[in-house]
Amino acid sequence: MLRRFFSYYKPHKRLFIIDFTCAVFVAILELAFPIAVQQFIDKLLPTENWDIIVLVSVSLLAVYLLSTFMQYVVTYWGHKLGVNIETDMRQDLFQHVQKQSFRFFDNTKTGHVMSRITNDLFDIGEFAHHGPEDLFIAFMTFIGAFTLMFNINFHLSVIILIIVPILIWLITYSNIKMNQAWKSMYEEIAEVNGRVEDSVSGVRVVQSFTNEDYEMSRFTKDNYNFRKAKVGAYKIMAFVHSNIYMMMRLIVLVVLVYGAWLTFNNHMSYGELVSFILFTNVLFNPINKISALLEMYPKGMAGFKRFIDILDTEPDVQDRPNAKPVKNLKGYISFHKVTFGYEKTQGPVIKAMNFHINAGETVAFVGPSGAGKTTISSLIPRFYDVDSGQITIDGIDIRDMTKRSLREHIGIVQQDVFLFTGTLRENIAYGKLDATEEEIREAARRAHLEEFINELPDGYDTQVGERGLKLSGGQKQRIAIARMFLKNPPILILDEATSALDTETEMIIQQALNDLAKDRTTLVIAHRLATIRNADRIMVVTKKGIEEEGTHDELVKRNGVFANLHKVQMH
Ligand code: ADP
Ligand code: MG
Fold first, then answer.
1. Which of 271, 392, 439, 558 is deepest in the core (most CB within 10 A)?
2. Secondary structure of residue 277 in the 3-state scheme
3. Where is the ABC transporter domain (predicted)?
């Protein structure tokens, strides 16, 4: 997994090298500073030569300016590296999620995918920048500082060496405690947000029951829980910070006292003592970094693992290696002993189903809900693959076609029409991204949308969706139909396309649909029998499979399932 992680550094090798080199340089300067001070006190001060002191100070200034620039590079370019990696990962993830088949989305919550794409990658990005670099720099500074400290005084260094692990443990432990406190704070704020969302979206219910006080009391409880959690987190934070601060001062104090004794007994010069104290300060930096990493590493890696898990989920509907793109399918559809179930545990929804639909024919599927009508229509564009049997179009197994070319031949209009945030024009043109203005207007006209759009002040540029115009079910349906006119597929699937509409709207849309169905192989799924009167053939689908098949009049005469449905709906 680490190798996978580092592979994301590859495209940004140059950035990494520059950042890393500067970081090493900054670290070396940090180590050099106490030594410089020591030389300054022990060697320069006794000479009382002002000229040399000025000269040394000026060169120190130059070195500092350079170091400042390096600091800038490390902070800016280093974070840029992290952001670049995060962006690359997000690209990979989005591309992969788009490729996933329907089964993946059946089993994955949208919220989880979203949090993967935002939060997890955010953590990983932070880690990608700070992880490897900080680890190296921290160890380098740490070892460097200790080597130089041992060089100055052995006993003092041993004392520090004993205290340091305790300090690391203390800081890491505090970090864990603090994270727990922040986590419970986040949980409480999630509760509060959930409550607000509920009450606001349910405000009509709240007000009609005059339950405002009840809502307020529930909200108050959550809001106060949040306060408790957040105050608690700050309390721990204050405790931790002050204690760590105290520990660090204590260490300096120990060095000071023991160091004083050592200088009195001529085991150490003044310059060495000052230098040693400065070194203990230099040490605190890597200690902080290492304990931050100890805590960041599992979090970043856990996020990375969730990320990898998605990347490694192969879509279960894939192109066969020898799949060929098909062109100009006529739309002769056959099911040969098709068996399919969503979950192994639940058994098949469709069992050994056989039927044929001629090119250009309009076939209606009717039957009780849950019988498997939508399932049948999902198998044709390979949203799912059959468990056994075969579906052919124009005699070719659909698994021998590329998914893309197959789906280019099929248009689906469902009960729910999804509109994207954007203009009406963009939403219609979704059926053919390179459609000309002429084509878009023609499609809108044939979908009976023109009149409605022309009455809008912004016409085709009207924003729809979330922050724009709210469209009625019938209007949305017409946009879906306009998309189909643009896409112009030889095979058309209408799955309860008009079921949610009132009878009058349905009649208008039905005209557009009849126009659309002309010269195409059309599967109509509907529960209102009036809708399918003109179908060439009707198939009655029940749990048992296709129970009856024939024209409208034939089925009425047969006195079976369809005749019963017909009787009920006519009264
Ligand atoms: P119809 O369109 O005839 O109302 P469906 O084809 O939607 O019926 O559903 C047939 C059966 O398959 C139902 O029992 C339904 O619960 C089940 N089903 C439909 N979609 C899924 C899915 N995505 N995952 C699991 N089971 C499903
Ligand atoms: Mg259905």
1. 271
2. helix
3. 333-568
d(CA 527, CA 368): 8
Residue 502: how many other CB atoms lie within 10 Å? 11
Q: Which two tokens stand for residue 520?
A: 């195409």
CA of 378 to the centre of ligand 1 (A): 10
365 pairs with which residues across the strands? 525, 539
Separation of alpha carbons 287 and 280, rounded Å: 11
What HEC string does 181-197 produce?
Answer: HHHHHHHHHHHHHHHHH
Residues whose beta carbons lie less than 5 angstroms from ion ligand 2: 374
Q: Would you state the pLDDT for residue 455?
A: 93
Instruction: Give residue-wise pLDDT tens across range 148-166.
Output: 999 998 988 998 888 888 8
Nearest listed ligand to the Cα of residue 369:
1
Contact call for residues 141 and 27 (beta carbons, < 8 A): yes
Q: What pLDDT is attached to residue 259?
A: 92
Q: Is 370 in the pocket of ligand 1 (CB under 6 A)?
A: yes
Amino acid at 82: G
Phi, psi (deg, nearest 5) at residue 490: -70, -20
For residues 321 and 237, what is the distance between their CA atoms, to the nearest angstrom?
Answer: 58
Q: Which tokens go with 550?
A: 């024939």
Provide Rg for the chain, Cα atoms. Answer: 36
Q: What angle do CA 317, 321, 327 make, to 5 degrees?
A: 80
Question: In which residue ranges of the chain is pLDDT below 70?
Answer: 111, 466-468, 571
What pLDDT is stored for residue 468 in this prediction?
Answer: 67
* Nearest-angstrom CA–CA distance, 28 and 334: 74
Q: What is the pLDDT of residue 423?
A: 94
Tell me how far the alpha carbon of residue 545 lies from the centroid of ligand 2, in angstroms. Answer: 15
Select from 317, 342, 383 the residue to mutate for testing ligand 1; criterion: most ligand atoms less than 8 Å from CB: 342
The predicted complex's ipTM stands at 0.98
CA of residue 369 to ligand 1 center, whole Å: 9
- Per-residue confidence (pLDDT) for residue 217, from 0 to 100: 95
Which are the contacts of 517, defined by CB distance < 8 A and separation ≥ 6? 362, 492, 494, 524
- Burial (CB < 10 A; 0-12, 13-18, 19+), residue 539, is buried
Rounded CA-CA distance 271/283 in Å is: 18
